[in-house]
Amino acid sequence: MPDDVPPVALPAGVTLRLLHRDDGPALAAAYRRDREHLEPWEPARPAAFYEAAYHAARIPVQLLEHLNGRSTPFVLTRGADVVGRVTLSDVVRGSFCNAHLGYWLASDLTGRGVMTAAVEAVAVFARDDLGLHRLQAATLLHNTASQRVLDRTGFARIGTAPQYLRIAGRWQDHALFQRILPDDEAPA
């Protein structure tokens, strides 16, 4: 598992990089800053989630999962601020070679190509560095912005999962997407 993942420059002065051990305060600040924007799209969060100590306690676990090859936690940064996350989770090897893709972006950066570039960079990483065959993602049925990101980055819709995840306090249906990686060509 690569533990020295080089940062990637993205549009709008944003950088994609591996989560760092000391990112707790910046993560908490990002979630507080965009709480209203993110709440409809994420699981209900306890009050402690918005504090640095919550993230500081979980980052070592996330980095251990990365070192063990089970996930890759990225952050999107602009200067010293965290402005988003992209995570490859539930990495399965063997005959599946698959991971789940999840992401979010700060409200002031949406619609500027940042997440499209980030998802593309992570897909290339998943193929070239992790040797994965497939990525899968799920969005709420009404999350058209996220679906546009997946469409632009080569994901195909493969179905609908009823009551797939508990989001914003209730079980909600999701659109399922996949991207087969080996057939991809490296970006120009």
Overview of the molecule:
The protein has one domain: Aminopeptidase. Helices cover 29% and strands 34% of the residues. It is built from 5 helices and 8 strands; from the N terminus they run ββαααβββαβαββ. An 8-stranded mixed beta sheet has the order 1-2-3-4-5-6-8-7, with helices on both faces. β3 and β4 (81-92) form a beta hairpin. Belongs to the acetyltransferase family. RimJ subfamily. This is [SSU ribosomal protein S5P]-alanine acetyltransferase. One of its GO terms (cellular component) is ribosome.
List the helices and strands and how they pair.
Layout: E1 8-9, E2 15-18, H1 24-33, H2 35-38, H3 52-67, E3 72-78, E4 81-92, E5 98-105, H4 114-128, E6 134-140, H5 144-152, E7 156-167, E8 170-180
